[in-house]
Amino acid sequence: MKIMKVTACGAVAACHDNPTDYRFDFPEDADRKQVASYALERLAAARHADNMTHISNLVPMVNNQAVRDSICSFMESVGMPRVYVPVLPKEEDKRQPSKMAGYILDLDREVPTVDGWAQSEKRYGDLLKRYLSFVETTTKESAHV
Fold first, then answer.
1. Other CB atoms closer than 10 Å to residue 136's CB: what's the count?
2. Is the dihedral of CA 34, 20, 117, 115 positive or negative?
3. Number of H helices, E strands in the chain
4. Which tens digit of pLDDT belongs to each residue from 47-88?
């Protein structure tokens, strides 16, 4: 059992917050409906990319969780604490917050068990609402013209 690489889901995170920002991908006189449609296409493509990344990460994430569990189990079996309170010189404040043990911090850094899929899905939902609102607005504008 070895640590496996987990690729972060980041395509949806790279999408513009405001769908009108996609107008820079078009000539100046581009129709707003084109921009709205393009924004939705880009968002859908980004979600698909993140979905494919997440699917490819499923086995590595499960493996890495097993690695973490194994290391934590071993450390616990030898009596290594997960947290500690640093000892300070007498003149310093005695109310020190507890700190995570170094091996826990190493595991957090080196053995990823999440790929950002949950954040990607949340952002996708937020952006989709914004983008659909923009589509609705452009449709109303074109109907009134």
1. 11
2. positive
3. 3, 2
4. 999 999 999 999 999 999 999 999 999 999 999 999 988 877
